[in-house]
Amino acid sequence: MTRTDGAYAVTVHKKDKDRRVAGWKAALNNPNTTAEGRSHARKNLLMRGHIKDAFFSTSFDTKLRRMFGLRAKRHSSHH
Description:
Layout: H1 6-29, H2 35-47, H3 51-56, H4 60-68
Helix pairs in contact: 1-2
């Protein structure tokens, strides 16, 4: 059920906005994201004022893996 009062609409809008920002930041750190996808994510972050996230959220480790064309680290499963 959807409420129509202003506070609810603002809360839902903020959550959606936060999720989009989180998705763009994740795209920058995902080694499987294409260069075009990273560019799109970076542009969207910049347009919304997330300058630090657009340029500095990618870890050094991720940048090295991209530079050498390596896949993401596999995590061992503990049983």
